[in-house]
Amino acid sequence: MDDFLSVETQQSRLAAYQDAHRQDRDHPTLPPASALRSAESSLPAPDSPSYLTPTRPEDVARHITADILPALTGQARSSRYYGFVTGGVLPLAQWADALVSHADQNVQVHLPSQTVATAVEDSALRMLAAVLGLDVGVFGGRTLTTGATGSNILGLACGREAVLQRKGGDVGELGLLGACVKAGVTEIQVLTSGGHSSLSKAASVVGLGRRSVRELSTTSRGEEPWRLDIDAVEEHLKRPGTASIIAISAGEVNTGRFAVDGMEDMRRLRALADEYGAWIHVDGAFGIFARVLEDADEYRLLRRQAQGIELADSITVDGHKVLNVPYDCGMFYTRSLPTLQSVFTNPNAAYLSSGATSHPDIPSPLNIGLENSRRFRALPAYAVLLSEGRAGLARLVSNMVRLTRRIAGFVRTSGHYDLLPTPADGDEAVFIIVLFRARDPALNDVLVDRINRTRQMYVSGTSWQGEKAVRIAVSNWKVDVDRDYRVVTSILTAVAEGREFDLSSC
Ligand SMILES: *Cc1c(COP(=O)(O)O)cnc(C)c1O
């Protein structure tokens, strides 16, 4: 542990590590089937006589490194794991994460005379807000979560609380039924377009139900399906007996596109929400990071589309994706700390009171989030924000965008593939996701498997307008634009031509 805590040792280790990690970028995206089989058969068998007999720690460590590790995906190690939106792990973040376990802080009560942990969390949340262009004076409610799903649950829980309180109900005290009866509300609706699946999950968790989520996209007008139809939102807000949460996707998960077109749309939604007592939640899990891009021509459109997020009542940010800290880490911001407290207050536990006199402005995390006891998960994010700063984060994200755009350009002009969703759009609409399909329907049917079988590139399958499609989501800090572009395009070409892919040719 001494080595681990020595800055000198860490300095050389991190430098070597950074290099090793870059070299590791050709690490297979998926383990071989044989590794998966032998790992599974190495798991303890309940009918074995040795089941749950003590094992020497070194043997446990040997088993884990020899059997378990080789049977995990290479999502952190490969630079071309493009499934879901996973991010990777910056070496410094990995080190900080190990320190989190080492110190094992329980970040639930703000105890500034005993630990600086809550102040570090607040500092990380403030730095992140600053790089994302959010005013912490406005976003007084902020906390760390387990990820974007966790943050979306907080967002809908706060929305539910606020929209009913405005009509005289109080969910935190009365429960949803009692609050709805008191407020004269017969339905709470979540109005969205291209909402992430976790939004429906959140709606179920907070008692609104998955069916409360209404897709109000502009598709019916023949436009982009991720775009929110604000006229339709207005119509829904007017429905009698309802209370509403407007959930904006800033970026939609299949396309990376934005549900609203920047400030003008957001101003209109803000005015509507104020008029009808609705709550605006922005799911900016990865899309909000468009706001860290430098002010350059190539990013003008993205920066414009990501404007106005600051007008929301609550905002979801993911840490373990674009920020490249380890799982699990998400952030939640709201302009209404009282609403957050009204939902999450952990009442009447005298032994958990903080009695803090310094930093009295930092609320105890247990009163503003789902958990009581929890991990000091801000530390890796704190480390990344400090080490990268504004410029480093801008570079991190722009590298991702540049590779994504080059791949989109290849797909657009390729004879084998069709770029989706709107191939006519120029590069400037592309953020970190490429959606496409093979022109040959037989190939399209097996495309995900053919690509993933190379184990040098991993993609997710999805469905787009009723047909299979493939998504590439670029979110790893290891992106090497030129080399990754060469590998990706030779994989896509080999797969389309029915040839074996050969990494050594790249
Ligand atoms: C990934 C993602 C989520 C879910 O995030 P988790 O971190 O997996 O909980 C929610 N919304 C969007 C837009 C996402 O991309």
UniProtKB/TrEMBL annotation:
Keywords: Lyase, Pyridoxal phosphate
Cellular-component GO terms for this entry: cytoplasm
Bias (Basic and acidic residues): 19-28
Residues with PTM N6-(pyridoxal phosphate)lysine: 321
Gene Ontology biological process terms, A to Z: carboxylic acid metabolic process
PROSITE patterns, per the entry: DDC_GAD_HDC_YDC (PS00392)
Chain residue ranges for the region called Disordered: 16-57
SUPFAM superfamilies: PLP-dependent transferases
A GO MF term: pyridoxal phosphate binding
Entry annotated with the keyword Nuclease: no
Names of the cofactor(s): pyridoxal 5'-phosphate
Coiled coil (UniProt feature): none
Pfam families noted in UniProt: Pyridoxal_deC (PF00282)
Family: Belongs to the group II decarboxylase family.
Protein name in UniProt: L-2,4-diaminobutyrate decarboxylase-like protein
Species name: Hapsidospora chrysogenum (strain ATCC 11550 / CBS 779.69 / DSM 880 / IAM 14645 / JCM 23072 / IMI 49137)
Lineage: Eukaryota, Fungi, Dikarya, Ascomycota, Pezizomycotina
